[in-house]
Amino acid sequence: MRVKLINENKCDKLPISGGGNKMKFKVRISNKETKKQLEDSFAKIGFEITEDADLIIIEEEPIIDILIGKLDEVYYPIKTENIILIESFGHDIFCITVDGNFKIKEKLKYLEYALDSNQFVRINKSMIINKNKIKSVSATVGLKFKIILVQNKVVYVNRTYYYIFKEFIGI
């Protein structure tokens, strides 16, 4: 199994601890045995495994097929094929489906790597969309795309993600 290290922080640099502090990690591996082995190995060399960490060790293959979302103080399972888009507003992340807008706890940076990269793509700093929910795509001025999703939701690909999106959909 191959794993990746991703940083949920907004910066691209890894946080380096000093003064005796341990570097903190979350581990997101579906195989419980492998997860335990990784956690034990990292603990032995002085790393702390905690849910408070910004650094996440994940499998290279997608590991999420269901998210847990909260709507009106009730938690619901959300199948990834039902997701239209995932959007952040400040520190809050929302999963938009045909059934409603659910608040989720996962951060976009984590979801960008953990969701199926053949189905989901990041289109700007605050949004990931489901390719299977696209109704139309049109070019706009300044290396941008206008996308109309199911339920007539309109979103935009900004210049930073223009070429990534263009390759993703094959145009």
CATH superfamily of the largest domain: LytTr DNA-binding domain
Spatially, the strands of the biggest sheet line up as 9-8-7-11-10
Number of domains as seen in the coordinates: 2
The oligomeric state is single chain
Helix content: 10-25%
CATH C-level of the largest domain: Mainly Beta
The amount of beta strand, in percent, is: 35-45%
Alpha-beta classification: alpha+beta
Radius of gyration: 18 Å
Average pLDDT taken over every residue: 84
Annotation, overall tally of beta strands: 14
Tell me what the structure shows.
The chain is an alpha+beta fold and 171 residues long. It folds into two domains: 57 residues, no CATH class; 104 residues, LytTr DNA-binding domain (OB fold (Dihydrolipoamide Acetyltransferase, E2P)), CATH 2.40.50.1020. The protein is built from three helices and 14 strands. It has a five-stranded antiparallel β-sheet with strand order 9-8-7-11-10. The protein has a four-stranded mixed β-sheet with strand order 1-4-2-3, with helices on both faces. The radius of gyration is 18 Å and the shape is globular.
Summarize the structure.
The chain has 171 residues and is of the alpha+beta class. The chain has helices at residues 32-44, 108-114, 162-169; strands spanning 3-7, 24-28, 48-49, 55-59, 66-71, 74-79, 83-89, 92-97, 100-104, 120-124, 127-130, 134-140, 144-149, 154-157. The chain folds into 2 domains: 3-59, no CATH class; 66-169, OB fold (Dihydrolipoamide Acetyltransferase, E2P) (Beta Barrel), CATH 2.40.50.
